[in-house]
Amino acid sequence: MSTVTGEQQYIKASARYFAVALRGGGGPIAVCDLSRPGRFEPGLSPIVEGHTGAVLDFDWNPFDDAMFATASEDTTLKIWSVPEDWEPIDAKGNAKGGENLGQSLVDLVGHKKKVTLCKFHPTAANVLASTAADSSVRVWDISRAETLSVFENMGDLTQDVQWDLRGDNYATSCKDKMIRIHDGRSSCVTAFVETAHEGVKSIKLAYMSADSNKLVSTGTNKQSTREIKVWDLRNFATPLATTKLDNNSGVLLPLFDDDSQILYLCGKGDSTFTPYEFEDADPFLHKLNDGFRSTKPSKGACIVPKRGNDILDCETARILKVTNAQVIQPLKFIVPRKSDAFQEDIFPPCASLDPAHTADEWMSGSSKVPNRMSLDPADMAMQKKKVGGGLKLRTVATVENELKEAQDRIKFLEGKLKEAGISF
Question: Is 231 helix (H, G, I), strand (E, B) or coil?
């Protein structure tokens, strides 16, 4: 795996694939199917490559499980689409040869220095936010490959960027210890906290449920004690609650499951994953149990979209853990039930593949929560057929091949017309 360090999670997943960065030229990325555990071998298994510098971060399109964006040291972002026949690992778990993916769908050029983080919009199709070492945050329309808005006064390196659940605003944390709330459409700062956490460790963010107006931040105090703070977005003067945790050195990653209102805390370098239940009332966060413990520390982690879980096995959450031993370990959180039937009480409708609005509608002021879909397996197949809000782009090579096939077909048909003596 890549040895480049930064503010990224090191792994991201859609409901079908996960991606991790690899070492080597061209910013190589391993993309693997969630349902195919096994051995990935660089040099044999196909990879995604196309940048001229290392890939620092990536994010999956919430409306297309095969599309993801990459942010690189070469100052660009690229949009990729994983082919349907992509199989770096075969059904037996062995590495499988194949052709590398080197042609991106879209290239986004605008940042002046390395691009450090990227995050897709949760409700609007084709909208992406990115941060860079040039102290800027850009919001892009990837269908047009153009910038919608830009904020250029971060002051220092951005440590995190997160959209709220409607996508009206996004929050950033910075090395200057400030948390800024930006208007999503203009990128202007609408609220800020001067010193969110007094320690020097990175500050990470997570929005709570759409109607709660609450934001959670993780960081450290002056004594290097890790802590969680809950903020009211309507009044940023003081945190609503502060929970002190421990003196471990790893940066805490807050992974929030909006469907179950569970916050999973995962520390870089930690071997534990601790779940907290969020309640929109004091004390806001309730520790459920000791969570998952192991002897192998994690390098990074991500949560799989609920659509990718084993619903009939009552898997309410799945976290992918990257270890320093170059292993991806899936951690399944399962509610034990005797019945094999769909458990509606623990699986409320989740965010679907259908965007709530287009980029133009969102820029015009549309504000909506994500469209929802039932997780009942009997309903999911039919619902997937109805949606189609993802960006439908093709590579230059694909268009050229289709053009050549059309030209060959026209030439063949013209020959047939001449043979029949028909003028045209």
Answer: strand
pLDDT at position 398 is: 63
Query: How do 204-207 and 328-334 pair as beta strands?
Result: unpaired
> Does residue 133 share a domain with residue 202?
no
Does residue 255 lie in a domain region? yes
Structure tokens at 3: 């040895």
Half-sphere exposure (Cβ direction) of 149: Cα atoms closer than 13 Å:
16
| Pick from 393, 415, 398: nearest CA to 79 | 393
For residues 374-393, one letter each, b for 16 or more C-beta atoms within 10 angstroms of the residue's C-beta and e for the rest, the string is bbbeeeeeebeeeeebbbeb
Domain with 90 in it? 1-152+335-393
Specify the length of the chain in residues.
424
Q: pLDDT value at position 381? A: 62
Among residues 45, 60, 40, 50, the alpha carbon closest in space to that of 308 is found at: 60
**Do 162 and 117 contact (CB within 8 A), yes or no?**
no
Backbone φ and ψ for 166, nearest 5 degrees, come out as -90, -25
Provide the whole-model pTM. 0.88
Contacts of 187 (CB under 8 A, 6+ apart): 137, 138, 139, 149, 150, 151
CA neighbor of 116 nearest in space, from 54, 178, 187, 189: 54
Element (H, E) at 223: none
Read off the pLDDT of residues 115-152 as tens digits, 9 standing for 90 and up.
Answer: 999 999 999 999 999 999 999 999 999 999 999 999 99
Whether omega before 305 lies within 30 degrees of 0, making that bond cis, reads no
SS3 253: strand
The continuous run of DSSP H or E covering 135 comes out as none
Structurally, the chain folds into a number of domains equal to 2
pLDDT of residue 420: 83
pLDDT score at 301: 94
Q: Per the domain annotation, does 375 fall within a domain?
A: yes
Residue 58 and residue 126 in one domain: yes
Whole-number Å distance between alpha carbons of 86 and 47: 10
- Amino acid identity of residue 99, one-letter, is E
pLDDT score of 388 more than 50? no
d(CA 32, CA 47): 9
Residue 66 pLDDT level (bands cut at 50, 70, 90): very high
